[in-house]
Amino acid sequence: MVGMHRRIDGRIVMKALIGVTAALVGAGAACGGGPTEPGGDSAVAHIAAEVAQVAAAVTGQDAKIANDFEKERYVGFDTHTYPGTNTMKAWKETPGSPYKWVGYYLPSPCHANTSWVGKRDTLIAMGWGLAAVYVGQQTWGKSPRALSLSALESLRKKTSCATDFISADEGTREADDAVVRARAEGFPRGSIIFLDIERMETTPPAMRDYYKAWATRMLASGEYVPGIYTHQHNAQQVFDDVTAVFVAAGRTEMPRFWVAGGKGFDEGRAPQDVGYAFAGVWQGVIDVARSVATIKLPVDVNVAKWASPSESGVNVQ
Fold this sequence. Notes:
Blueprint: H1 2-6, H2 10-31, H3 41-59, H4 64-70, E1 74-78, H5 85-93, E2 99-105, H6 120-126, E3 129-135, H7 149-156, H8 168-184, E4 192-196, H9 205-221, E5 225-231, H10 235-248, E6 257-260, E7 279-292, E8 295-304
Parallel strand pairs: 1-2, 2-3, 3-4, 4-5, 5-6, 6-7
Antiparallel strand pairs: 1-8, 7-8
Helix pairs in contact: 2-3, 3-4, 8-9, 9-10
């Protein structure tokens, strides 16, 4: 059989693989969806692109169209607590696993869990891309009260996460904390740190002051670059505010935005399909159970423009 395989012409292999692709696409059309979960035309196109890449590799050709489709569609996940090194290894190395990067939670005011601390080097060695997340203050549907300094200090002794902390001064303070936390985890200079801002039905002026001050201070530090995680409902306003901060600082690049929400998500979609051209990451599935190698985790599923949203240039396998 080995000798027979060696005599197969590359063109025959190409035709066979293309035939498989056509069959998959035809099956998807007949059933009104794709052959994988989650389905849809994008999932079919994703499979077709992968098959074309295999065929190109066999025949020594360059599957440019397929390669272009695969660019800027890097699937990642985030989850509150570090899943464990063995689990992360299995999820990265199991054939067929779609995940290229993972959210990396820095200790922060509204994320006291420290399970991710000290894991960056381990994850990088496995080939994981990373998105560093700093969960700052949240409105939780309320507006911050104008408390006295003594009242704020008294509250701070009880908790690090409270709507009443939201202010420009707090944004500056927490930007400094984010720098210290990211540095301690070994994130290289120039990495993007994503400030997590959860959905707000209305945005209090103090919150706008808070995240603008956070971004301003991060840029002024010169060590890391501010990125933003926000909901689709708030994305445009936050983007406009943070872009103005970048312009005021003399920065010419667009801030990295990670947008949650939207409709019609699947892992084959591009991030901007959330509805905003500036979206570099789309979190389209929230709090679901997914399995790789029979290991199940509660995760949020994302697709990103970058294989490692916080660290450009990292060798992601």
